[in-house]
Specification:
homodimer, Cinnamoyl ester hydrolase (chains A, B), hydrolase activity (chains A, B), WH-like_DNA-bd_sf (chains A, B), alpha+beta, 115 residues, DNA-binding
Chain lengths: 115, 115
DNA sequence: GACTGATGCTATCAAATAGATACTAAGTGC
DNA sequence: GCACTTAGTATCTATTTGATAGCATCAGTC
């Protein structure tokens, strides 16, 4: 086993200074979890996301999507139509993150109000 | 298939008014995800949790644990020793929630800094 | 018997974030 | 010119977070 193959073991979400804390903070968030889940269905534009993520404000939606883009989880594409069309699409990384988030949402839906 | 067996389908985290939104908001949170993960190792007292959840403040730890208790995810036990000993332990519900959260933490640790 | 130490919680203040709403930009159609 | 559409920013307030200090309890020490 080479040292390179063990690289991932250096990441520890319990360590305050570990860079993966940022990612956990980003993903362990209501709106991120919902946005990534919605985008699993394919690229979507802003208005559609706003409608699906019931209760989110314009500002928080913009901020959430920007943070996800900055972390490489999704790609933002502007189509120079009029009025402007903006689409968001998950990257491979985002598709990967979507899996555990889907399980979390699913667990919540199946276990609330049943105990 | 009876109606009762379909009950869980009424929960939809995308619906703003669904009670499961509260649970998603609680679990999709950095400190909740870390606290529940730590408690998977068994009951632990406050100081131990504070040490493991590097960077958390006393106040936020208290608040986080209280919210988790209020939602039935953990049980708080006070042992009348001196100085007082307080232990937190996951309930069955908490143990269930721990699974998807573990996968999320694991995904983060394996996918940060590798793209 | 006052003094220190340990533990867990709350009180207090500043800083950051969320949320609600209004406004801007750019071009189309009337 | 004027209204309409879409996506985003600006603005203001409310809520939450974070850092610290303080409190209560009582055992052990001198």
């Amino acid at each position: 086993m080479t040292e390179l193959s063990e690289d991932y073991q250096r990441n520890d979400v319990y360590a305050a200074m570990c860079p993966c804390r940022d990612m956990l903070d980003l993903l362990a968030n209501k709106w991120s979890a919902l946005a990534i889940g919605a985008l699993e269905d394919g690229p979507q534009r802003t208005g559609e996301l706003k409608r699906r993520l019931e209760g989110i404000s314009t500002k928080v939606l913009s901020q959430t999507l920007k943070k996800l883009e900055d972390h490489g989880l999704l790609i933002r594409t502007i189509y120079p139509e009029v009025p402007a069309r903006v689409e968001y699409e998950l990257t491979q990384l985002g598709l990967g993150a979507a899996q555990p988030l889907k399980q979390l949402r699913s667990w919540v839906e199946h276990n609330v109000g049943t105990h």
